[in-house]
Amino acid sequence: MIVSRNSVRRSPCIARVTDGYGLSGVLLWVVMLTATGCATMGKVTNLSDESCRLSFTRQLSSILSHEGEKPDVSEALASKTASALLVYDLGPRPFIVAAPSGTDYRFFIERKKTSCVLTLYGRHKGFVSYTNNLTYIATEILPACTCAE
Q1: In sequence order, what E strands does the chain have?
Q2: 44-85 pLDDT, tens per residue?
Q3: Alpha-carbon Rg of the chain, whole angstroms?
Q4: Could you give the CA distance from residue 6 to residue 25 in angstroms, rounded to a whole number?
Q5: 109 near 119, Cβ under 8 Å?
Q6: Domain tally for the chain?
């Protein structure tokens, strides 16, 4: 099997099964990806609603605070991120929050049945980068938000 960065579309999972491995190899790979938690990315569709925007900023701020950002900084970053996502329709793809601490946080939104989940899957500071796209670093449900793929 060949693993490629440009592989699974709309998913942070980095894997691609190329031709020549037969149906059983493809099925085995799909089962492995599903079992390890690969997710399909989505986007928040009602971020303009105050209840969703408050939920989004509260949960994003919570994750950033848990990662070591100061509470006032995490609240400001969360608010600016919500505003930016309202103005720019990024579609269902990851987004980065750059903190004054020098850390860049990588997030995506996942649609799970009837809820949206905000997921932190990577961070980068200086020469140190950490990505966990199997179990993720942190997840928060966005209770007042709706999602689409």
Answers
A1: 41-44, 95-98, 103-112, 115-125, 128-131, 138-142, 147-148
A2: 999 999 999 999 999 999 999 999 999 999 999 999 999 999
A3: 16
A4: 20
A5: yes
A6: 2
Which residues span the domain enclosing 89? 41-148
Both tokens of 136, joined, read 């993720």
Per-residue buried b or exposed e for 116-141, using 16+ beta carbons within 10 Å of the residue's own CB: bbbbbbbbbeeeeeeeebeebbbbbe
Report the percentage of the chain scoring pLDDT > 90: 60
- Quick one: 33 and 96 in the same domain? no
Looking at residue 39, what is its pLDDT?
64
Instruction: Give the contacts of 108 (CB within 8 A, at least 6 positions apart).
Output: 12, 39, 41, 93, 94, 95, 119, 121
Residues 138 and 84 grouped into a single domain: yes
pTM of the predicted structure, to 2 decimals: 0.73
Indicate whether 12 and 24 sit together in one domain.
yes
Q: What is the pLDDT of residues 102-115, one digit of tens each?
A: 999 999 999 888 88
* SS3 label, residue 127: coil
